[in-house]
Amino acid sequence: MILYDFDYERPGTLQEAMSLLRNSGVDARLLAGGTDLLPNMRVQNLKPALLISLGAIAPMPPQAGEDGSIRIDALSRLADLENSDFIRREIPLLAESAHAVGGNQIRQSATLGGNLCQETRCLHLNQEHDYQFAAPCYKRGGDCCYPYPGNKPGSCWSVYMSDTAPALIALGAEVEILGEEGTRSVPAERLFSGNALTPLLIARSEMIRSLIVPAAPAGFGWGYHKSTLRGGLEFAMANMAVTLRLEDDGETCAAARIVVGAVSEGPLRASSAERKLVGKALTAELLSEAADDASDEINPLPHHGFTRNYLRENIRVYLRRTLTAALERASGGII
Amino acid sequence: MNHLHSQAAEDAAGQAHNGSKRRSRCIALNINGELHEITVQPRKMLIEVIRETVGLTGTKGSCLSGTCGACTVLLSGRPVLSCITLAVECEGKEIRTVEDLAQGGKLNALQEAFLDQGAVQCGFCTPGMLMSATALLERHEKPSLAQIKKGLEGNLCRCTGYNAIVDAVLQVSDQGVLPVMK
What we know:
The structure holds 2 protein chains of 2 kinds. Chain A is 30% helix and 19% strand. Chain A is globular. In chain A, helix 9 (271-277) packs antiparallel against helix 10 (284-298) and helix 10 packs antiparallel against helix 11 (308-330). In chain A, strand 4 and strand 5 (70-73) form a beta hairpin. Chain A is built from 11 helices and 12 strands. Chain A is of the alpha+beta class. Chain A has 3 domains: 1-54, Uridine Diphospho-n-acetylenolpyruvylglucosamine Reductase, domain 2; 63-117 and 159-213, Uridine Diphospho-n-acetylenolpyruvylglucosamine Reductase, domain 3 (2-Layer Sandwich), CATH 3.30.465; 220-330, 2-Layer Sandwich (Enolase-like, domain 1), CATH 3.30.390.50. In chain A, the strands form 3 sheets. Chain A has a 5-stranded antiparallel sheet with strand order 4-5-8-6-7, with no helix packed on it. Chain B is of the alpha+beta class. Chain B has 2 domains: 2-100, Beta-grasp domain (Ubiquitin-like (UB roll), Roll); 109-172, DNA polymerase, domain 1. Chain B is 37% helix and 14% strand. Chain B contains 7 helices and 5 strands. Chain B has a 5-stranded mixed sheet, sandwiched between helices. In chain B, a hairpin with a 2-residue loop joins strand 3 (72-75) and strand 4 (78-81). The longest helix of chain B has 15 residues, at 2-16. Chain B starts with a helix and ends in a 10-residue tail after the last helix. In chain B, 43% of the residues are buried. The interface between A and B is medium-sized, with 29 and 33 residues.
């Protein structure tokens, strides 16, 4: 049970939902799968006065555009994405990242848009309200930080843990956001502020409507890894998504994207490691060096008991393997 | 007497215009094929309605935060966590709980297989395990070992070490696992 009363509306159309969101005059939130919002309301990290359920609005099936890009409804359930033959064939990286989220029951309820809009997490924030210290921390509107007492005033070092966000950034997806003045579109990587207090650059009157994933070019390969303690039903220690594109010669790297998530206030791109790969023939040594560079560049935030050194090593090792898998896929080794 | 009665009615009317009563909604939930008309506040989770209002206590609540899977029920055939699902969200959907499995006082084949394999120890995770396994078996007639492990990934068990549970699903899907208990 949620320990305070709130209002609930279940509009039949998206237009009604958006008009409620704008005009309700109270702190309103959209409710999709609820697997992140409701537990956060239970521990009173979030206390919206009105929930606007999107449950009556059916998601549209994924659609291929004329340019080969694929539009995915943000209300698509993660389980439907990971089990969709179309998504598994056309955007396997997205299917894999959706498959990595939580446990089966979570994925049956949770939506792709909701996964992107999840709250940041830290050992203090995740606790029941009863166990919290009397004074709220910066994230809860207070004036202290319990995990990092020396933290600069007003800054929060909680971690954004979406498993699908790194995959969407690596794929170069565009995010369509429905707002007061129609729809605007931003690249997935520009969705994140890098500030854990407000991790997403989306206004409260806006909603993620759909994700547009560009067509995979020739010579495309991908890799995905989520580091976890027990391999299921948990948040990541670190997650990483890699996409590579090879030139027609099948060796030279034409483009690379390396994204590491769950170790910072938002997903991070390892730009210098990407630059190291582009224009060169990809060898095992080069990939290994790129993984080393990325691990240095990322500077992970210690979280949930994992130290910075440990996370650096974790990223170094698994990024090397993820890059290797991406290269094998790009050169036709594994499908 | 009349005076008292009208006073009570006035109080009820007064409550209806302020506080939580105003927010209550009347919904009809289809649980195990039976329609239950209930008045519920939006903040009530499905598990509370199932256990406390309807009185079906087979579904267990453990972590109440979506991390253990004990409260799994089937919502329109999907296994979901009733502890992080609002009851008001479930109107018009078919809800199935563990009580739906046994028919006429007789356990179904999956429940028998759990007994045959000793897949039940303390029993607290069992209703959730059974519902997750039911959803899995409705999708895949003969699930592979990997599919079983992935299908039951969202259910934690502190006693059995999972092997007996996996064996029970293999047994009931007729994949060459024999009962170990008599």
